[in-house]
What we know:
This protein starts with a helix and ends in a 6-residue tail after the last helix. The model has no long low-confidence stretch (mean pLDDT 92). By secondary structure, it is of the alpha+beta class. A hairpin with a 7-residue loop joins strand 2 (48-53) and strand 3. The longest helix is centred in the last third of the chain and has 25 residues, at 68-92. The protein has a single domain (2-92), classed as Arc Repressor Mutant, subunit A. 55% of the residues lie in helices and 14% in strands.
Amino acid sequence: xxxxxxxxxxxxxxxxxxxxxxxxxxxxxxxxxxxxxxxxxxxxxxxxxxxxxxxxxxxxxxxxxxxxxxxxxxxxxxxxxxxxxxxxxxxxxxxxxx
Length: 98
């Protein structure tokens, strides 16, 4: 989920957490205390790059963007998610979109 939020443009941690919360209608929430260690791990793995940016009147924030390796991982994860969702729909008797 984190990788998908920065697929189109760089975002800072708080923005990533808020976007996931908003897009899931509050069902999926990240606590900042767990989000930042995850971002640091992704950065160490080379999936994302972080850059400190200062804007006038605001505090300094670290913006994260997807790397080519991160794009590859995201594509692999999306494939896995599709398989998982299909299996859940079959087992639980759910129909897509309901």
